[in-house]
Each structure stands twice: as C-alpha cells, then as structure tokens.
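Record passed on underneath.
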Amino acid sequence: ISTYYVVNKKVNRQFDSPIFGSVVLLKTNSKIGRACCITTKQYKGITYNICTLERNVADHLYLYVHGHADLDQAKNLINYGPSKSRIRKIISSCYPARSARKMLTLLKGWIYGEKNEF
C-alpha cells in the first residue's frame, strides 16, 4: 500500500482510501505559492497545483525532520538530478527557520557525501 503525503495549510489527518492507499494530510507553516515553486496549471478547464522536483525534495526533507516520513524517498528524488542550489533557495525562503536549518544540513551531507541524519 502506498502512502501519500499532502502538505497543506489547514488539516492534520490520516485516512485510508481504497484507491490511493494511506493518505496523510499534514498541516505546515511552509509557504505555498509561486515563489516557492508551486504553480497553477489547467487541463480541460480544471485548475490544479503542481510543484517542481526541487519542491518535492524539500517537502520530503521537511516530512523527515518532523518525523512523518523516512529519508529514502527524498534520497530517491535526488537521483533524478534536481538543482541543489534551487533546493537550498526553496528551503531557505519557504520553510520555518528551525526546520530549514535541519533540512539544509541534510542536503549539505548529500552534496558532500557526509552522513548526517537526525
């Protein structure tokens, strides 16, 4: 069963879906918007939000430092070649300072091959 994490501004809740598997809604203080690599797109008249690979990496790091997910998914996303400088910029400007420090430490460890996990 897959677990889907939905970072949002309002709700903390977990439930099982017959289609999606386990769904975890996580309330966050991180900024959500165009400046933080979340854009609005439209398909057949339906508007939806989508985030970049860099924002996905940052969100997985955020989930990890707050104990909601393991680190493997974020490490897997790093293998797809996202811009590490762009990830640093997103973390620094879109997440609370305390979380950002932990997230940047993890990212630095991946860039320089150090092992620092919380």
Observations:
- The chain has a mean pLDDT of 81.
- Residues 97-112 form the longest helix (16 residues).
- Helices lie at 53-65, 72-78, 84-94, 97-112.
- Residues 41 and 48 are 6 Å apart (CA to CA).
